Amino acid sequence: MTDTGQQADRTLAELVQVARQVSAAVQTVITGKPGAVRLALTVLLAEGHILIEDVPGVGKTQLAKALAKSVDCSVRRVQFTPDLLPSDITGVSAYNQELRQFEFKPGPIFANVVLGDEINRASPKTQSALLESMEERQVTVDGSTYQLDRPFMVIATQNPVEMEGTYPLPEAQRDRFMARISIGYPGRDDELAMLETHGSDSPLDYLKPVAHASDVRALVAAVREVHVSAAIRQYIIDIVNATRNATELRLGASPRAALHLLRASRAHAALDERDFVLPDDIQTLALPVLAHRLLPSAEAMVGRDLPEQVLTNLVRRLPLPGR
What we know:
Layout: H1 3-27, H2 34-45, E1 50-53, H3 60-69, E2 71-72, E3 75-79, H4 87-90, E4 91-96, E5 101-106, E6 113-117, H5 124-127, H6 131-136, E7 138-141, E8 144-147, E9 153-158, H7 171-174, E10 179-181, H8 188-198, E11 211-212, H9 213-224, H10 230-245, E12 249-251, H11 255-271, H12 279-290, E13 295-296, H13 298-302, H14 307-317
Parallel strand pairs: 1-9, 1-10, 2-11, 3-6, 6-9
Antiparallel strand pairs: 4-5, 7-8, 12-13
């Protein structure tokens, strides 16, 4: 084996080791949801952002906090409310009496991990304050542009749109989230264990970081080296095009969605200790990566055909990529 191959194997082994440590740390807080934790790790290593959507009380904020706390990096939390202003997120330029000039006061967006709690309770104007930072990793205030540190990740929670006091997220913002996670209710045994462990103290109070921000940056670089064959890339394009041509959908997946699916599949393969992507990776990630970006047509809404169901049928009908 060449030195380059040995180095790649060591990097992949380190990735899996760190990922297992982070996963174990998060699961001390979130019990019985290994799939949700695995998807959150996948998005972290793919340099994406997570939208955690579910009914109140199932642990959305706990999952976001546990993932952020397991990595030793800067973390800021923003509670989205109807009266929140864009400047409350990005920061403002304030006049300094001593220096007699304006100086920039950074907002909570200037952190490695930003927790946006109940993001759809803020107005669309405030939600749009995140658009530039999520896509370009920078913030522009009063004509000046400020770069954000890497890694940079937005973990947003939201209640279903039918809940009171919520605003639907703009399509442009939903498209910037790499994946959507639905935690769901725990199983009977898991909920019983939760009553025993969370009844008196919160495990989140005892959670210690098991990785550093520099470790995450190195692991993100390692994930980029995972091989994606031409057939797999064509398979991704076939899935995306199928959503654009489906009569049940009035808005299909964007080119950004195809790129997110590619990046997430690399991270998913790396977590399985593989340096190449399989069709199984694409099929596993198609629903959480693409479904929240799709909008049903009027006929589909009447027939109650959810985008998740339409996407599942599309992926099932498409032929697998050949050799």
